[in-house]
Each structure stands twice: as C-alpha cells, then as structure tokens.
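One-letter codes give the sequence; the integers encode the fold. A sample entry reads:
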Amino acid sequence: MTTNRTPEYLISLVNELRKLPQETEWVEFKVNKAEPEDIGEYLSALSNSAVLAGKAFGYMVWGIDNNNHEIIGTEFSPLTTKIGNEELENWLLRLLSPKIPFRFFEFEAGGYKLVLLEIGRAFRHPVQFKHQEFIRVGSYKKRLKDFPEKERELWRIFDQIPFEDLVAAEEVAGDEVIKFLDYPSYFDLLKLPLPESRAGILMALEADNLISRTDTGRWNIMNLGAMLLAKRLDEFRSLRRKAVRVIVYKDNSRVETIREQEGAKGYAAGFEGLIGYINALLPSNEVIKKALRKTVPMYPELAVRELVANALIHQDFFVTGSGPMIEIFSDRMEISNPGLPLVHIDRFLDTPPRSRNEALASFMRRIGVCEERGSGVDKVVFQTEYFQLPAPAFEVIGENTRAVLFAHRPLTRMDKDDRVRACYLPACLKYVNKEYLTNSSVRDRFGIEQQNMAAASRLIREAVESGVIVPYDMGAAPKFMKYIPWWAARPSAGT
C-alpha cells in the first residue's frame, strides 16, 4: 500500500527485520554498497525468493550492519543516483522482466539515514534482470539455473496460487483494514447484518478469504479483498493500474477526448456506481411507439452490465500495466480487458464459462452482478436483437479481449461484417436454445417485411458463403431451410 508507508511504519518494519537472527532469503542488509547492476540482480533474487518463502515482499535495507544488525546509516541516495542520464528506478524497471512493483524509501531512524527497497514478489514467471534469473540461497545471490530444484518449486507455486490469493497489503493493523476496505458494502451486498464490533467485521472478512491473520496478530489484505472492496484501489500499489478507466471521445475515433475518468473503488463496492456513471455518459435515441415519443439509451443497460462484468471477472491480472477500459464513441462502445480469452471468441455463446479468477467471479455471482450458469453473452446478443442494433463484435487485440456494441443503423448502412455477424450470433443463440436460424427469424432480426423474403435469403447466403453458418438439412425446400453455426455441423450437415 502507499498511504501506510509512513516514517513510523518504515521504522517499525526495519526494526522487525533487524530482529531476524541473520539475513534470510527475502531480506538483504547493506551499508553503502549500491552498484546498479547489483541492485538489479537483488531485485530478481529477492522477488523470486519471496515466493518460496511465502512473503508478499522482499526487502533490501541500506544503513544496517550486516553482522549485528545495528543501525549505522548510509550515504546511498537512490533518488539522486543516475545511470547516464537515466534515473535509477527507471533504469531498473526497464531491465526487469516481467515488471514487478518495487519502491525505494528514504527516511531517518535514531538520527541515521536509512534506505529501504520494497520488492513485490514474483508472479506467473520468475523475475529476470538483463535476461538472467536470480535466487537467494541462504544469504547468497545465485543464478536460478544453477538450482533446478528451486526453479521447479517456483513453477509449482506459480501454477497453484491464483492472483486472488496473493497479498495486496502485508502486516496491517485491524484499524487499517477497516480504513482501507469498504466493509459496509460487503455486508450490504450480501444482505448480512453489520457486526457490532470491529472483531466481528474482521472475522467475517477473514472467513471469506478477503483478509488473513498473520503470525504477528496483524492482517494481510488479500488481492481478492482489495479488488472487491477497496475504498481506493490506488492505495494498493500493485493494483492501481487495475482500476476501470472510462473514456468518452468526441467522434468515432480516438483523436479527441471529451472526458476520462478512472474508477476509485473495488469492483464489488463500486459496480453499481460504475454502471450508473457509464449510462449517464451514453447517448440516447428517440423512438416512437403507439404515437408516443420516448427517449431510450443507445445501448441496453443489461448488455452494458453483462459486458462490463465480464471484463472485470475474466481479465488476466498478471498482464501488468493495464486494466479494464470502457471507451465511448459516437457510433459504438468498446469494452476491453487485459488477457486473451480462455475460449475462442466464436464459441462465447455455447462454451461453458471459464474464469481465471474463480474466487472473484464467485463473489460477484453471490451479489448478483453475474449469473452462476453462464457468461452473459447470450443476454447481450438477445438484447441487441431485441433493440434491433447491429450484432456485437468480439475481438482479440494484442493481449486484450474486446467487446463492441454498435449504435443503431439501418440494414442499408451495415457492411458485410455487420450482416454476417447478425446471422451468425443469432444462429448460435438459437442453437443453444434448441432452435434454428430460418428465413423468418432473419427477417425478424433485420426488420424485413415478409414479401421481401428474397432479401433475407441473400443475407443467409452471404453468411453461408462466409462459412459461419451451414444448412441443417440440405434436403429441405429453400423456404423451410434451417441453419446452424459452423461448429455445430455434423458430417452430414452442409456436405
């Protein structure tokens, strides 16, 4: 966290580290030696070793005698150290892979200057410095490749521990847990009575694995707790880039931004506020029904809710430097999240949902943000059909997954991709509901009059030629022909 790294906290932390009988695999003491190359290798070694030790952070402390752990002060100043014209912290970060959170703190203790380097634990992959992986063996820094048993153990831990079970804030007091987590929202969302004591609140949060008690009687705030209930995500250094960004552009390109806002709260505590904020920014349409003019949102709220919830739940938290993003253009709305989808985008409608973040998804299901049974994409497709909007698009852009909702436009202004999607996605939706795409359902989808059946037939033929749908029964008369998505075809269908 950031705000609790006060001088008092840092002095207390250093004093706790000094009580260790000797340097450990996750703590290194120095006096003045601060060669940039050496620091970079220690960043790798201590980050990797923190994983093996079950610690959220590794530490380097300058100004401590390595023999007796007495405070003697240091002349090292990371803030003024440069490599060429580059600041030390930027130089180190550039040469680390993958990027991990780390931070230098300069402060005084007992009249002596100290420097503490707080190093976030490795996740997903061992941390490299200049393409070399390091590890601590006792109090010595070694190359990881020379200790294959430690490398195997690292990978075993990476494979077994999900992001939610990592620590966002380590060794915080009970009153700090109450300060940084929106605990009233927890009880409100779950429709539970608020305990009368702080101990009761902490016990409930602990039972849901949002926080965990440490050996010292203090608390670790887990990533799950912070991501769901943080009053401010930017209080948690490793999570600040996971806040949701909402950007509104002037037209249909990213050239000119009208407004940009970054969410502050955890996903559960802030979800309803986020949806309300997005809906307030969306343009609206005027429709006339039974001679009454009515203003309706450009995009169905249910579709917006489902896609935003999916972006939060299915993101890859291990992709550093990016988080969920909602971009609003004059003609569309794009909802992106970091991470490649776990199922092919063509199979979103029929494949049982899989989540990288099952604990996060489970909690969001418990509070009604998403349903237990599915991903919500079927609802999105149904809603866009019902409101006669172009079919949504699902894309993979680099390491990101993107869903796109399009503003209303008539069939005459839809391009081929729009028309093909508007046949393919309804075919998928109907198939999972034990139904079939037909000329009649295509007419309903596009608002085509019955006497213009030929126009619907042309749209179906275009989708068939694109390979996204196939006839269910080639022997049927043209007007009775049924269609299914390509992936549902048996050998006899379409052959």
Remarks:
- The radius of gyration is 28 Å.
